[in-house]
Known about the structure:
Helix 2 packs antiparallel against helix 3 (about 45-60) and helix 9 packs across helix 11 (about 350-365). With about 475 residues, the protein is α/β, with parallel strands linked by helices. The longest helix is centred in the last third of the chain and has 25 residues, at about 370-390. It has helices at about 5-10, 15-35, 45-60, 100-110, 150-160, 175-180, 215-225, 270-285, 305-320, 335-345, 350-365, 370-390, 415-420, 425-430, 460-475, and strands at about 40, 70-75, 110-115, 165-170, 185, 205-210, 255-260, 290-295, 395-400, 435-440, 450-455. The chain has a domain at about 5-245: Amidase signature (AS) domain (Amidase signature (AS) enzymes). About 40% of the residues lie in helices and about 15% in strands. Helix 4 (about 100-110) links the parallel strand 2 (about 70-75) and strand 3 (about 110-115).
Amino acid sequence: xxATEIAKKVLSGEMSARSVIEQHIEIINKIxxxxxxxxxxxxxxxxxxxxxxxSKIASGETLGPLAGVPISVKDNLCxxxxxxxxxxxxxxxxxxxxxxxxxxxxxxxxxxxxxxxNLDEFAMGSSTENSAFGPTRNPHNLERVxxxxxxxxxxxVAAGFSPLALGSDTGGSIxxxxxxxxxxxxxxxxxxxxxxxxxxxxxxxxxIGPFANxxxxxALTLEVISGHDPRDSTSIxxxxxxxxxxxxxxxxxxxxxxxxELSGKGLGGISxxxxxxxxxxxxxxxxxxxxxxxxxxxxxxxxxxxxxVIAPAEASSNLSRYDGIxxxxxxxxxxxAETMTATRTKGFGDEVKRRIMLGTYALSAGYYDAxxxxxxxxxxxxxxxxxxxxxxxxxxxxxxxxxxAFPLGDKTEDPMQMYLQDVCxxxxxxxxxxxxxxPFGSGEDGMPVGIQILAPAMAEREMFQAAKILESESGKDIx
Length: 479
């Protein structure tokens, strides 16, 4: 059942919030042991929250638009008194003393948190295999990955554990797992959603966004969590988004560009079945009255290289606080320096250590200009090329992921092959622009394929209008 429908029935009294939560707990108990989407299921608290919602409705109180709707949240979002681990041993057992802003907004809207979802440790990965608590599996095929780093959130929605989930997106960590799990995933404009209470990976790239089964549910959730927050210095001083009102306005006359460099024409490694779905999406948009043409964003091919200098550099700085002194369980040694080393050696996984070392090297004396400085200049080139493209087009499209979900363990021994899974999604993080993945058919292996819709900064409304059209034609014969 869609989130909007659940809220409508709960608010009208047709269904109780408790019955909704009980139904979802039953599904979790049945399927979760195989999927491992959650690090923690908060079933008892969810039932208490549901009873409170039902009590408020019975007394005639006005409730928010997500009243009684179950939602799962990525385990790098702070939840007061509830363990927040980032799927890392170094934070195991840590209970934040406050809620992230997005958690506050969800509670105000009446949503009920079902649990904290699994992720690649500190959001560093593309398959949710880098978790200290074991990998998450794709609900469509338990031998395949769900994508990452927000794989637990994507899997929770795909498996029916909750109709909504929140994730974070630093280089595609919402959109890529959304594509692999066959759900909608949205990365808003940088600053649209407060990052207060999000455990930082790369602060100039991180952004929180929703997962949902439908475009309408994703739009409603984004409306709820968006808006200015004075506690986040990067928060845009704008009112919450209003997207739902434009979803059905169509795309007649919209100018849509297909990014050459992120398709089979300009980028190797894109599977034929993914390219076929993109070609079908082009027909859908053309049939709906849009003007669709090829678009060139030349510098986008350098996105992966720039990202894997900038993101590790910021991670190196952000993760320095996990030393056994300020955060995390301590591994004692003879001196303070040795204690920090022992704590980090034991507490961090291999991928996190790899990125910290890369980032520290890129920021070190003698290499800063050659690596970090140059990567920032490349980032500017990418921004400029997208700005030129958006002078001609209202939105752009590309594949979300180069392939469908790959087998567990298939890329864990080759970091470069894993990094290439984000080649289509990274550019939007570097520019700060919004982008989303919409499920659109399947590949030859029967696994979901996602189409990525990109838009200029602050143009979420146009992006969602196109997404709604694509969703309405998914699964149909297209001519």
